[in-house]
Amino acid sequence: MNKSNVRSELFGKPGSLLFGLPQPKPAAIAGSIAAGTTTAPATKSIDASSSLGYFVFPPASFSAYSASGFGVNYASSTSSEPRTTPEHPWTPRDDRGTNPDVQAQLDADYEAHRQHLAELRKQRLAREAEEARKGEEYWVSCGGVLRDEFGRRDMERTKAIREELKLREIEKRLTEMWEDHETRWKKLVLRTGPGGKSNPPSPHLSANSVSTQSKTLTIVDITPIHYLSFDDIPWPVQLEENDARLNVTLQDLTRERIEEFLLKPLTVRGCTISRKERIRSSLLRWHPDKLSAIIKQTDPQQKEDVMEGIHAVIRCLHGLNTGS
Q1: Blockwise average pLDDT, block size 10, the chain, 324 residues
Q2: How far is CA 317 from the centre of its chain?
Q3: Which of 126, 146, 265, 293 would be a feasible disulfide site paired with 178, CB 3.0-4.6 Å?
Q4: Around Cβ 61, how many Cβ atoms within 10 Å?
């Protein structure tokens, strides 16, 4: 047999090594079982050296090794005894469930950590909400319109933010107006002396003695006197925004303007001063006895107007105090 026939015999036909060994047909096996003459199917002996692509497995009755050196015994595949895996001597034991102190400490640490995470999340949400609010207010202040979650124009929220921004602007002006009024009063008190008990203005004299050969020459330097004017008094009125005048006059000291100036800042949110407290503190401030030092340092040509203005403020305050 030539080489080509040998290769065809080994690999090219059914029953050859390439296709595996021939197996008996199921019909033949069934007939043998019925006749009681079942025999093992004939197999073709194959030389181990010529076998290709086959694995050799141990028979079913092969006993596994016994790893007694490791403390583990494996039963054979045919044994009916259950497999047991004894506890290893080096397995660490968990005593957290048996020690109440350790368990309590762990629970306390876990609760503290959980609260810390909850606080961090709360702060993060607050920052995000604040940034979102600022963005919406900026957008509305620029003339934009907010939209809802479906992309529709939300005119109600837009109107609410516009009113809030307008109210904040009014409160800001009132707060700045009152703070400027208080600052001017502090400067006036410092100028007239501590406690309002300073002496009336007088020429400032400084004498320097100069010695000469025959006599002593005294040089007197007289500095100009700085009187207080009507405009230096922080009157409790505010000029209109469209008023071109810069200073208050005696005709501006009306009850309506004085009442608005004193009581309107009390409407600012967060103000804790009551109406009664504001009127009482103003009465003490504008009492003529408290203003004696200011009156003494007032310009004589404007002293009459200053006195008349003080009395106008006092009459208004008494009317507000009595409710008349």
Answers
A1: 54 50 52 51 48 57 46 50 55 56 90 96 96 94 93 94 95 94 92 56 40 43 68 90 79 92 94 93 91 90 92 92 78
A2: 46
A3: 265
A4: 8
Q: 3-state DSSP call for residue 207?
A: strand
Q: Which pLDDT value is given to residue 241?
A: 75
Task: Report the alpha-carbon distance of residue 131 to residue 28 in Å, rounded.
Answer: 86
CA–CA separation, 172 and 180 (whole Å): 12
Segment holding 121, helix H or strand E: helix 100-141
> Phi, psi at residue 12, to the nearest 5°?
-100, -5
- For the chain, the residue count is 324
What are the residues whose beta carbons fall under 8 Å from the beta carbon of 222, sequence distance 6 or more?
Answer: 203, 204, 205
pTM flag (> 0.70): no
Widest distance between CA atoms in the chain: 172
